[in-house]
Amino acid sequence: MALVQHYVTGSKYVPLIREKDPQPPSLYSNTARRTPEALLEEELDFLRNQLAQMIRKENSLTSEAVVEVSRMLDIKINEYNHYINKRSKKID
Question: Which is one GO molecular function term here (predicted)?
Fold first, then answer.
């Protein structure tokens, strides 16, 4: 399954496609049955790792690149929280 990664270069995003699995997922595989929650969690983990790498690379918490990745992570955290709150309201 191809994952699109966004690398920040200055103030421009450069999308890159990375092949995680050489074969497309089967309808019966675990990857085909991932929940939206699990996919969001994977994206959060990816962005957290990207942020940590960017901080080490830039050696700064305030560089434009670090701030951009941090903003992307904030947006994804808000999306995750919205999904969780929406799901919990359906259960109640």
Answer: protein dimerization activity
